[in-house]
Design goal:
The structure is a homodimer of 401-residue chains. In chain A, the strands form 2 sheets. Chain A has an 8-stranded mixed β-sheet with strand order 10-9-11-1-12-13-2-14, with helices on both faces. By secondary structure, chain A is an alpha/beta fold. The longest helix of chain A is centred in the middle third of the chain and has 19 residues. Chain A is globular, with a radius of gyration of 23 Å. Chain A has 15 helices and 14 strands. Chains A and B meet through strand 3 and helix 3 of A and strand 13, helix 15 and strand 14 of B. Strand 3 of chain A pairs parallel with strand 14 of chain B, so a sheet runs across the interface.
Chain lengths: 401, 401
Amino acid sequence: MLIVDGMPDRPIGGRTPLSVAKKPNLDKIAEMGINGIMDTISPGIRPGSDTSHLALLGFDPYKFYMGRGPIEAAGVGIDLKPGDIAFRANFATVVGSGSVFDKVVVDRRAGRIEQTEELINALNEIDLPVKFEVAKATGHRAVVVFRGNSSAELTETDPKVVGEKVKKCKPLADSAKEIAEIINEFTQKAHEVLEKHSLNLEREKRGLPKANAILLRGAGVMKEIPSFRDRFGLNLAVVSATALIKGVGRIVGGDAFTPQGATGNKRTNLEAKLGNSLDLLKKYDVVLLHIKAPDEIGHDRDFEGKVEFIERLDSHLGRILDLDFSKNCVIVTSDHSTPVSVGEHTADPVVVSILHEGVRVDDVKRFTEFDAPKGGLCRIKGMDLLNIALDLLNLSKKFGA
Amino acid sequence: MLIVDGMPDRPIGGRTPLSVAKKPNLDKIAEMGINGIMDTISPGIRPGSDTSHLALLGFDPYKFYMGRGPIEAAGVGIDLKPGDIAFRANFATVVGSGSVFDKVVVDRRAGRIEQTEELINALNEIDLPVKFEVAKATGHRAVVVFRGNSSAELTETDPKVVGEKVKKCKPLADSAKEIAEIINEFTQKAHEVLEKHSLNLEREKRGLPKANAILLRGAGVMKEIPSFRDRFGLNLAVVSATALIKGVGRIVGGDAFTPQGATGNKRTNLEAKLGNSLDLLKKYDVVLLHIKAPDEIGHDRDFEGKVEFIERLDSHLGRILDLDFSKNCVIVTSDHSTPVSVGEHTADPVVVSILHEGVRVDDVKRFTEFDAPKGGLCRIKGMDLLNIALDLLNLSKKFGA
């Protein structure tokens, strides 16, 4: 499954990046395969990349989505159990006197600090009434997981803007009272540990902002979720540079890989990502290769940039066409549209092509938003995609007699 | 949303009214927009106009439909609370001796009486153990609402044919025992009040049938239903001459309008309805304009009549094309098909065109049952229509991250 994040678009003057890009391999895939449009969640519902990837892996996001915190936590490698509560976190700089909640946030990214490993080690030594774990994410970011059966009906400690005080975590339900107190205790103790940490004292000497507070947001409780293997009898690998997508893969029990040079932006090493994915096909039944850049470029509203990236991506896709389609099934699609005219995810359906010896090849010869609806798949839903592929591969069981 | 009731058809000799009518504006809408076919409820399910309008407004009719009584009651302006039980009612003529239930219905429409206002005022003075309200509907019709938490598991008092006695209302569940007795008490007291009413004594003198009974049918209990505003954050206006459609709009918290000269039949004032709808767009986020006639003509099995009405309707639609489609989204569709070959609502999917700057314009150039399936929307469901429009207008929220 090649999932090109945010690639489809809304037309501007009748043109989309996909319709103007020179992309002989994507067009060849459309020509050799069966094509259609797909609502990854449901028509008119704007998908997040996390909810849509859950759906594309066959998991109903309305049933299994648990918020961003747990998925990011899984993405950076924390093994979550049902009932664990997870937050996204930032190292930040606070000033003032009194407790951490009397202090004002002056930099939500602590000078975009990168080397946070030692700080995280120190935070993990804090004594709390519950088990917890802090783990590094990209840059100044981290995740914090509190173990046990907690409620995520909590307010955030991150004020989200500079110039405001660190917020106290407040319970929004009686069941969250205890964990709210523990989170406030953690926030205070974290500040004390960080404030006097040698790395911060050194930063102070060098005139850098101290990473002396940790701010929490995006709470979610890990749910009971069946594994991909239990559900489909197959093992799963996800190749991505994006923690959120790796997290979706891990949450459903898959393995996640980030090859050397994969960055999640438009300078990513496509050769390595594609090579890694094709290698993994030898060990894994299902390999999901996630390419992030077109989404980022869509958010930047850069039409030409999207065209250029699609053309560069296309130049690497010839290798897909060399696969043996009597044994392999290749899906090329996206998790959602990110139109350059909008700069956000939209619910415009994505383009989908399925390549396999057994597909009913249609007349579609170009991989575009305008050609796909004329294809043999018509309009499908994200939740059905994997089932369609497993059926083509004769890996499906009959329902009934 | 322009909803042309019952417009699509089944072909007779390969032709449908839409395929032979000269309708340059509808065809221009198809050409400028994205097209498809739509199952307003679900494939193969024959929609009522009430259930399909609920779906087109984003409310699952399987969850929220409460029967015709409450919707008609809302349509004539009664403000319903959850638990209220509503009936459609007819003024009728009964003869004989004894109680009303011993008397025989000789005219189910009381000589098609029109001026029922005074009779209704008198009925509203009746003393009953529960609060109730009688309101005028068109002609000899009315609605009756009994307030409070009642069960609608009741038989009807309307025998539906002349020559039979007025029926006693019987409970079909224990929970309906009390209300059944009250309804019988109401039916008897109504007869006593009407029998001696001056208006009826006068009718008797003039040789007209007395409107001396009120017959109840179509019981339904008002349900808890979220408002359109709560659901979508938008306000809604419905423009229709049909109480049932106005009722659907009001049941979901919208405002309903019937412009001067709007009749619900083929002589309706289309200029006024369209003008009123375009004006309302200044004050309302969503305006649903309902045109009833093609359904009526379909029930009459009049092919040429349907062609003529479509052509007349089309001559008024040029004004829609003058809207600014960077800011507005126009949907042209129907609530169901009413084929002239059947004379009833059928589940044949309806034609749908969506006009907005951001749509992926397809190759469809004619607004017909034969061209629509080739369009870029493929086949959608009524429940998804509004979500698709809100996404195009960037009024949607993202699900996930």
